[in-house]
Design goal:
By secondary structure, the protein is an alpha+beta fold. It folds into two domains: 104 residues; 123 residues, Dipeptide-binding Protein, domain 1, CATH 3.90.76. Helices cover 21% and strands 19% of the residues. The chain contains six helices and eleven strands. The strands form three sheets. It has a five-stranded mixed β-sheet with strand order 8-9-10-1-11, with no helix packed on it. Strand 2 and strand 3 form a beta hairpin. It is globular.
């Protein structure tokens, strides 16, 4: 369980802070993988093969046979819909997407071409945007995306949102079908403010939060300062008979 103190969204493009983008990755995939890089520090291939000669004009093809949670396969039209209508045209009027209105996106002969105003290796980051299902959202308004789709999201990654009504401030992801982790569930709980969390964990002693992000280390937690510009992975063997619940929480 992770303690948070601000609003997040597991739906792509509604919020783009680091926490929200991380949670969105439980449910949605992208052409390039934001959380895996090659020996040159570039995002690795996920749904697509992406090619460029000048870091300004890119050609991509769908390479992964991915079935969404509703049984429909991810298509090249899904990618075109996401890149052109959701991002370039910004049909939902999301302010953070205005920066992409000068790109070009075209679909022809089963491939997509994307052009940027100037050449830069950073343009590759565009292809880490999560792909949305066209067959569900092609007529949806932003309000319908926020409500109807949020209640029953059609996702293309391994996790799912666990239905639960006991705690309206918690969101639980079921990771049971995810092959690259031994976690069964990942829960985030919004305390609103750090003060509320402090009172809950120190005074009432009710919190079972494993990790939180703050400059202050409360009793029972150990503060860690991580200064790095690299993506970091932490692994431990949950198959070992030496790993008990208490040790997992400590880790």
């Amino acid at each position: 369980m992770e303690g948070i103190f601000d609003q997040v969204s597991y739906l792509p493009y509604l919020k783009n802070d680091a926490q929200s983008v991380f949670y969105q990755g439980f449910l949605f995939r992208s052409c390039l993988n934001l959380y895996e890089v090659d020996e040159y520090g570039r995002p690795t291939l996920d749904l697509c093969r992406v090619y460029t000669e000048d870091h300004k004009n890119y050609v991509l093809r769908l390479i992964a046979d991915t079935i969404r949670s509703d049984g429909v396969q991810v298509s090249i039209e899904d990618i075109f819909f996401t890149y052109d209508e959701i991002i370039r045209q910004n049909r939902w009027g999301i302010e953070s997407l205005n920066t992409w209105n000068s790109i070009t996106v075209a679909l022809e002969d089963g491939r997509i071409t994307v052009g940027f105003p100037s050449a830069s290796k950073d343009n590759e980051k565009f292809f880490t945007n999560y792909i949305l299902p066209r067959h569900i959202l092609f007529t949806a308004t932003l309000d319908q995306y926020r409500t109807d789709f949020a209640v029953s999201p059609v996702y293309n990654d391994c996790a799912s949102v666990l239905t639960q009504n006991k705690d309206i401030n918690s969101l639980i992801f079921d990771l049971g079908k995810c092959e690259d982790t031994h976690f069964a569930y990942y829960q985030i709980k919004n305390y609103g403010t750090f003060e509320n969390f402090s009172a809950n964990s120190q005074g009432e002693k009710k919190s079972i939060v494993d990790v939180y992000e703050s400059a202050y280390a409360l009793e029972g937690f150990t503060g860690k300062n991580i200064l790095t510009s690299k993506l970091m992975g932490v692994f431990f063997n949950t198959d070992s008979d030496k790993v008990k619940v208490r040790l997992r929480r400590a880790l």
